[in-house]
TrEMBL record:
Keyword flag Signal: yes
Source organism: Rhodococcus parequi
Signal sequence segment: 1-34
Keywords: Signal
Stated name of the protein: Lipase family protein
Pfam families named among the record's database cross-references: LIP
């Protein structure tokens, strides 16, 4: 890296640290602004067949996430509904948050857009990230347990650097239907069509783009990188960050069972049943009545509810045979095939990708994240894989072992930001793979 790039990289990290610190200060629950009207999230009866079309948009306040003297975000934000497609090609409506930066772009070339794929927020409509941007909180059903908008920091960082930002809500979050949590195809569609929608709002297909995501979001951006050439070939994607990606759901679901967020397994199962109705009888037969009730309840909850009400949930407590639900599903060929169809790593992305993972991540296993990079490398992709060596904290607690690498890599060291800034600046990436 030359001297000017080094200086810009240090400036990016400085911006990251200051905004991250401010967001942490502002994370405590306080008097929340009113969120968007529910009617906004109800799509019209007829939708355009063209993915990425804007259905509607309206101005949107950004609540208490940036350290401006008056508490405002120094940019114009919009709540947006755009078109996308389910895995079978059916048109659907998705919502998201578009933030147009008022800062000068710190890179070279035209102002880019960064599409952010959020980490796990939940399955109830109230968990949509756009609601958190307008109120400052991801609302859980328990009013005493509210979590700060988890994507405010990354959105603030890129806005401060002069990029436009679009944060998708994903399919079925806020809008009608089940949120198909960790569905490889539908998450990719939501991310790529968010990029199309951002282009429609900001002026053209030539806009340089980057995809940014961690955890569920890392799986979404990784899947989008694979599908982009066939699904959205017109997009000018310069680079992708897939942090802590959920690439192999067999491993991920087995890992989180009994973890602080073990109830998130219910998000995945509910989403699979919604798209593969043949699984409904399989799941119902394997669960106790209490298990079926829990699964229904989880479908209405946010991640804050899972942590507050169902911490360290073990699915064996809800199965008829007392074994983990994933073990039951593996025994049924149709269910096992659904899980394996979600595997990311079978198609080489055509754009450079940075994959990162914590060696001691006890929520999204390190081995499957590294295997994603190896699989892509074997298929000829340009991949950089980085290992975070933070020492382990208390096992299963999620916060330190899973979010620690996110904070260290993205917000303190800033490598994902520097990596994507270099891609925007057309700095050549060494062809092939770097796996460390």
């Amino acid at each position: 890296m030359n001297t000017s790039l080094e200086k810009r990289g240090r400036a990016a990290v400085a911006a990251l640290v200051s905004i991250a610190a401010a967001a942490l200060v502002l994370a405590a629950p306080g008097p929340a602004a009113a969120g968007p009207a529910p009617d906004f999230y109800t799509p019209p009866a007829q939708l355009s067949d063209a993915p990425g079309d804007i259905v509607r948009s309206e101005p949107m306040p950004i609540f208490a996430t940036v350290p401006a003297a008056d508490g405002s975000w120094p940019a114009a934000a919009q709540l947006v509904m755009y078109t996308s497609r389910l895995q079978d090609g059916t048109p659907t409506a998705v919502t998201g948050t578009f933030i147009d930066s008022a800062h000068p772009w710190r890179g070279t070339g035209p102002r880019p857009t960064v599409v952010i794929a959020p980490g796990t927020s939940g399955q109830g409509d109230q968990c949509a990230m756009s609601r958190a941007f307008s109120t400052g909180l991801n609302a859980g059903l328990d009013p005493l347990f509210l979590s700060a908008n988890q994507e405010a920091v990354s959105a603030g960082v890129w806005s401060a650097l002069g990029a436009r930002v679009f944060v998708t809500d994903y399919i079925g979050l806020g809008t009608p239907g089940v949120h198909t949590y960790v569905n490889r195809v539908e998450q990719a569609h939501a991310v790529l069509d968010a990029a199309r929608a951002a282009n429609a709002l900001s002026g053209g297909d030539a806009t340089p783009l980057a995809l940014w995501g961690y955890s569920q979001g890392g799986g979404a951006t990784a899947a989008a990188a694979e599908l982009a050439p066939s699904y959205a070939p017109e997009l000018s994607i310069k680079g992708v960050w897939a942090g802590g990606p959920t690439a192999d759901l067999e491993q991920v679901l087995a890992q989180i069972d009994g973890n602080l967020i073990g109830g998130a397994i219910g998000f995945a199962v509910n989403g699979f049943v919604a798209r593969y109705p043949e699984l409904s009888s399989v799941v119902q037969e394997r669960l106790t009545p209490e298990g079926r009730t829990a699964l229904d309840g989880i479908g209405t909850e946010c991640i804050a509810d899972i942590i507050a009400k169902r911490p360290f949930l073990q699915t064996r407590s809800f199965t008829r045979d007392g074994r983990p639900l994933i073990d039951n599903l593996r025994e049924v060929p149709e269910a096992l095939q659904v899980l394996r169809d979600q595997r990311i790593g079978t198609v080489a992305p055509r754009v450079p990708v940075l994959v990162s993972s914590g060696r001691n991540d006890d929520t999204v296993p390190y081995a499957q994240a590294r295997q994603l990079a190896v699989d892509w490398c074997d298929r000829g992709a340009d991949v950089t894989f980085r290992t975070n060596e933070l020492p382990p904290l208390a096992p299963g607690t999620t916060f330190g072992n899973h979010f620690g690498p996110l904070i260290a890599d993205a917000y303190l060291d800033g490598e994902p930001v520097r990596y994507l800034l270099d891609r925007f600046d057309e700095v050549p990436v060494a062809p092939g793979c770097s796996v460390t």
